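User: Hi! I'm a student and our assignment asks us to look at how structure tokens line up with a sequence. Could you show me two examples?

Assistant: Happy to help. In each example below, the sequence comes first and the structure tokens follow. Example one:
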Amino acid sequence: MTVPCGFVESAKAQSSWTLARTTMPHWANVHRERGAVAASIAVQRTLVPGIGSAMPIPKMHPVESSAVARIGYDDEVEEAYVEYVDGDLYVYEAVPPGVFEELANAESKGTFVNAVIKEYPFRRV
């Protein structure tokens, strides 16, 4: 199916989370039980302004953290998206799905990002 630019495509697996819209701990527990954290995160994409054109980003999920506002994952290219509380959005490249799942389940998102995620190549969006 072709989706016109600017529209978002959602899979059925994503819709159950969208309807729930609960806190990150509940979201992480539900998806961890299903074994589908990384797979379900990348289903829905949004367009954001990029250099020269709009670039797609995965569905971003709010997290409880004093440093990190939202996280997302693109499983097609293994990129982790981290939006900080100041609004800056960074893409960390070549992050394996298991590492992103650890981030999603980490008690301290900021500590995990600093200790693990920031070791990967990144770009600011």
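Example two works the same way, sequence first and then tokens:
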Amino acid sequence: MDEARNSAAADPGCRRRGLVSTLRAKGTFVEVSSEDVSRLLADRHAGDVFVAQCKGGPTHGYGAKLRVLDAWAMRKSWSQWSTVGYEIKVSRSDFLRDTKWETYLDLCHEFYFVAPPRVIQLAELPPEIGLIETSASGTRLFTKRKAVVRKIEPPVGVMIYVLMWRATIGAEHKPDRLSYWREWLAEQEEKADLGHRVSRRLHEEFRSLRARLYNAEQDAKRDQRLTDALRTLGLDPEVATEYAIKDRLAGSDELRRRLSYHLDALRQIVGGEQL
């Protein structure tokens, strides 16, 4: 990215404010700088260690040429510890003139180029290198291809640099025992209260269902008594009418005697009249 900075003024559509790319979004032109992209990456790594313009070691001496990543991040996870390196390109010429990016690979487990749309084509990158593009408005990032997680030796130089020059050491938050037990007790009381409310509601639902079941059983028994009574009279329960029942009973003392135990049910059909 250093070469691109030196040639920024000569690159059409790319001028110094950091590096600037002019994008067209919804009929208007939007300028996106390398600093804008870096801020978007910082937002993406809000819960991680994120360092813009991150050095790979000491600035002078030790026989090594200084390497500076546009951005470097370390995920805060013991189980999936990994680091990510980013190289930001806001112009086509910036990308084509970069011959140093491969020297950054041993500084991170994953390596991404980040650029506006159409600055870099996926076919131009090795398959293990990731590509992230900005939106046309320059306000969002979209992963076009995920980087392969490579096995590397821990980048000690980067981590020493970050620790010595870029980190702010804060005390680890450890709640006192009294606060811990207060929170624990409040949580247990909340769970107990919820349990009581659920139990009470389930008990009410059970009582309601049991009452409905009892009523349904009584209705079924009554219907069965009526059906038996009508069949004893020689009537079809599906089509028998009140007048048919009265007519059938009127001329038969024998049927009256045989159906005495059905009188209660029959009175419901004939409107409660005495038979």
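Here is something you could point out in your write-up. Residues 1-18 have pLDDT under 50 and may be disordered.
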